[in-house]
Amino acid sequence: MAMWVFGYGSLIWKAGFNYDDRLVGFIKDYRRVFYQGSTDHRGTPEYPGRTVTLEPADGEVCWGAAYKISKKEDKENAIMHLEVREKQYDKKAYLDFFTDPTATTPAISGVMVYIASPDKKLNKNYLGPASLEEIAKMLLSPYLMFADVLISVLQLLDNSHPLPFLHRKDLAELEAVFEHVNTN
Asked: Is 115 helix (H, G, I), strand (E, B) or coil?
């Protein structure tokens, strides 16, 4: 039986594992937010960076990419890769994935998705809400791996533009603030 993995951040453009198929689509009742701290690849323990996670939000959708992995060895390798890559995310959820905004039946049921919860006991790196300006300033902090952060944010923005029917208000606002902070 095939395994499906949903990516809503850097997994959109950089899976890092073998897969058989990739579908563009969305999950319902979640929104993408820059609330998760990263102390390894986007920052340090003293100056954590910010990465995206999902927050429950009735009526919202989060677009991304779902990857189908069929071969046993590819599944094992993908899980090993993701457990390291997503180690600062404390929850795995299995959600419905849609490719058609008018559909009531999911294209795939049970796509695996990594989520960073706001539970500080289970997720010590959760940073929580901040203003867009604070998030942009943090992403541009001289203490963080600037080139890596800049590339990641710009790739997330660039890879979201061509997604059909994309409601990308969150990314459009961040993009505007990011450009404002970067020019001042």
From this structure: strand
Q: What is the pTM of this model?
A: 0.81
* Whole-number Cα distances in Å, 153 to 18, 23, 41, 87, 144: 24, 21, 13, 20, 13
Token pair of 119 as six digits:
């539970």
Task: Count Cα neighbours of 21 within 13 Å in the Cβ-side half-sphere.
Answer: 9
Q: Which residues contact 25 (CB under 8 A, 6 or more apart)?
A: 63, 64, 65, 66, 97, 98, 99, 107
Name which of 25, 27, 46 is nearest 37 in CA terms: 46
The CATH homologous superfamily for domain 3-129 is Gamma-glutamyl cyclotransferase-like (3.10.490.10)
Q: How far apart are CA 43 and CA 145, in angstroms?
A: 6
- Amino acid identity at 11: L
Q: Which residues are catalytic?
A: 86
Domain locations along the chain? 3-129
Contact present, 66 and 12 (Cβ < 8 Å) = no
For 147, the enclosing helix (H) or strand (E) is helix 146-160
Alpha-carbon torsion 18, 7, 81, 45, what sign?
A: positive
Q: Please report, in angstroms and rounded to a whole number, the separation of the first and last CA atoms in the chain.
A: 52
Write out pLDDT tens, residues 17-75.
999 999 989 999 999 888 998 887 777 888 888 888 999 999 999 988 999 999 999 99
